[in-house]
Write a structure and sequence with these properties.
Strand order of the largest sheet: 1-2
Distance between the termini: 81 Å
Helix content: 40-55%
Largest sheet: 2 strands, antiparallel
Strand content: 5-15%
Shape: elongated
Number of domains: 2
Radius of gyration: 30 Å
Number of helices: 2
Structural class: mainly alpha
Length: 93
C-alpha cells in the first residue's frame, strides 16, 4: 500500500510542478531561487491571434485552402474516368 501511495504522491507533485509556471533563477548570493512566472498576452503584436496581421493572415490562409479544395473537387469531377461502352454504361461518342 505504501508503494502505491508513494507513486500517487509523486504523480501529484509532478503534475503540480508541470502546471504552475515556476522557473529556477540564479541569485546574487550564489543560490538558486524559485520564482513564479507571469504570462504576458499582448494583443496587437504581429504574431498574436487577435492582431490585424494575425486575422488577415488567417483569413487569407482559409481562403487559399478553400480555393484549393474547390479546385481539387472540380478537377476530380471533370477528370473522373468514365466507363464507356461496357454494360450498363452507354457508349461514349
Amino acid at each position: 500500500m505504501t508503494g502505491i501511495a508513494k507513486r500517487l504522491g509523486l504523480i501529484a507533485a509532478a503534475s503540480i510542478f508541470m502546471v504552475t509556471p515556476l522557473s529556477l533563477q540564479p541569485s546574487s548570493t550564489s543560490l538558486v531561487t524559485i520564482s513564479l512566472d507571469s504570462a504576458e498576452a499582448r494583443v496587437g503584436r504581429p504574431l498574436t491571434p487577435m492582431s490585424v496581421a494575425g486575422v488577415n493572415r488567417r483569413v487569407h490562409r482559409r481562403a487559399y485552402y478553400g480555393a484549393a479544395a474547390a479546385g481539387a473537387a472540380a478537377y476530380g469531377t471533370y477528370r473522373y474516368p468514365r466507363a464507356c461502352g461496357y454494360y450498363p454504361y452507354p457508349p461514349c461518342y
